[in-house]
Amino acid sequence: MSKEESNELKAQSAGKESVELTKGKKRKRAGPQTGWSEKKGAGKLTKFDTAGKETTSTTPKEKTRIDGIKSKSDAEPPIERPEKLNKPKKPQVAPQATNSKFKPAQQARPKNKQTEGPRYSQQAQNVPPHLLKKRDELLPVRKSLPIWPQADVIKAALKTNNILVLTGETGSGKSTQLPQFLIDEPWCTKCIAITQPRKVAAISLARRVADEMGSFMGSQSPAAKVGYSVRFDNATGPSTKVKFLTEGMLLQEMLRNPAMSQYSAVVVDEVHERSVNVDLILGFLRNLVTGQESASARQHPLKVIVMSATADVGSLVKFFEDSQPSPTTEKPPGNPIDESTSLKQAEVASQAVASRISTCFVEGRQYPVKTVYLPQPTQDWVESALKIIFQLHYKEPMPGDILVFLTGQDTIEGLEKLINDYAEGMDKDVPKLLALPLFAALPQHAQQRIFEPAPFRTRKVILATNIAETSVTVPGVRFVIDCGKSKIKQFRNRLGLESLLVKPISKSAAIQRKGRAGREAPGQCYRLYTEDGYNTMDERTIPEILRCDLSQAILTMKARGVDDVLNFPFLDRPPREALEKALLQLLHLQALTETGSISETGLKISKFPLTPTLGRVLVEAAKPERDCLLDVIDIISALSVENVFLNLVTEERKEEAEEARRELYRREGDHLTLLVTVQRYAAEQTDRKIWCDKHFVSHRAMQTVMNVRKQLQQQCMQQKLLSKDDTQSELAPSEARSQAILACMLRGFISNTARMMPDGSYKTLMGNQTVAIHPSSVLFGRKVEAIVFNEFVFTGKAWARGVSVVQLDWVTEVVKAIM
DNA sequence: GAGCACTGC
Fold first, then answer.
1. How far lies A297's CA from each of A294, A342, A344, A594, in Å?
2. Average pLDDT for residues A664-672, to the nearest whole number?
3. Which of A141, A240, A257, A259 has the most Cβ atoms closer than 10 angstroms to its Cβ?
4. Tell me: the pLDDT tens digits for A192-251?
5. Is the CB of A698 under 7 A from strand B?
6. Protein footprint on strand B: which nucleotides are under 7 Å from a CB?
7. CATH tag, A367-542
8. Does domain A66-86+126-326+333-362 have CATH number 3.40.50.300?
């Protein structure tokens, strides 16, 4: 085993997160061998550092070209911006800054400030020595990060401007260092929020920053300065100054506290991944900083830092700039706008003028990766991948694992089998090959295998979906094989149907995949397409907001007081048709009134971590005439996890499972079946794991179900839909109650209903689409009058999943009522 | 008698 390998292993076993998280890097850059990688979380940076030290000869000349802050206006660098344009300043020393650290430092900036230790060192009075020791050990690592020398420039920029767009390639250290740069700034009297697209990233970053600051984490101590907040896990305390949180969490907070008065700064990280949530957050923040929304009585204006790995700074800057007076056309005070507006608006305007935008670029660290294209395009990339795997295996010295990007479980399992077959015929003196599948549906313990060391003289071949593009970092990879395709979910407005299609990836995704080969050493990337093929790819992956059902996003906007959603500041504006479709759906759900404003019901729905349809079902179940809320919570909890029932492979096991689950199945359909399953699981007092094994139910899924259930019950109590006196029934529901439950489902899923045609097929009531009951349903093959279903998916054929029997006259009744 | 990329509240 090489030094690097053993370091990697040490890091893996020492780090608490065995899955290393990275940022998605979608970058517009077709240039020569560059890629991006970033170490995050405890263990990873250490590993990088160790590896770097021990392999300095092989490390490429540190690419530390760093562009400093660039002001939008060359003639007027941000640092020299006249103070008068800013909001009236509070005294330089913040109220709680009784500590000496605040005093002179902000005024006079010594030239070589970055060589000093962190200023918060004086604060560490009640901190145990081991934390301080760790902090001091980590300081040199921090100082070696490309972003470190930029600290003063960044601080100066944010002193003058309220918005900073920071593009940092991976490995620059931006996610960990930026909050530490800002924490002692005079304007930073409250907390700094840093958003992440994934939970694991939020948690591991928080751990890392706590270590670097010599602080406790979250709830460990009331003195903890660093914390995180993700669903089901809130680790923040009264002194938390740096808080990592998932995008969804920040969005929830934005609904509860629209002015964001608990924060001095919001850092939006990984913006290039462009989740729907990020798009909403950016829109809300833009409204907030430009004073279009209620201008709050803040001490200091909210600082917004947008961080991205992409090069398209331009669109981000333009996004924030558009609403602001441009620097060149700035009007002197007393201009017509100011005169005709109220005093408050004038204040807002002056704040807007001050909210100019700084930009900053920090280069990352990455080893070079050689790209090899196919000379001719191919249809059969499984075959091509197989050939290249064995070529590499014979030709390239060990160590060096191979990562193959494929589209899904089926192709992965197919290639896995082929590799194993061919590997059997290899010469005895050739090292062995170990094929390891990696996709999200794989059980956790099977996923863990990619982190385990390969046996002696064995090369790992990891066959992965795009889970390995951003969410999981596979150690030891020197070779990447990229099929150039991925499955993409697309929402079709006209049909209200989503489909999962195999499509070519974008250039930025291809670059991202390639970068996976250059994280630990120089690498190679084999693209199973031609160079022309690459050139015809889209530059960027289409943002999620342009290809998903918008009803939840729009309800969130309405709940935050955005009345005119058609004119919401979208980074990418969805087509009008998609917006209108979503508005109509919300109207059908009675989440909106006829005039388009949010209703009482809509407000309730928006507070639940559910789609509007499921939220509507929940609200319906709380009505006295329905009176089945606890049952419906159980069902919805089960619907919000992937698969409660294990997917069996062999015929034999399938039959075994059918038999074992028979006592759970209900003839009314999948919803009542799920209810019984949750009830039985919850009632199991001895060993739930054994119960799951016995019934071929996923224990992991059921644990999540129980978490969701608890959360929904709590939220229902907060919203007064449920009282403490309501008791959970442990008995399967009566006939009458079953009917009530299905009536509630129907209220939310009225557009997902179908009736049987004379030929035995099903057609939807709204849209007249043919659908078939999915084979995973307990109703598969049954012929009933009418059905209600949760999902309408197209995979070769239109399928209804999550299906229950309903009476046709109920359906027509509800349809009539809302149309 | 079919199949399901990936997040997240």
1. 9, 16, 10, 34
2. 91
3. A240
4. 999 999 888 898 899 999 999 998 888 778 888 999 999 988 999 888 999 999 999 999
5. no
6. 1-9
7. 3.40.50.300
8. yes
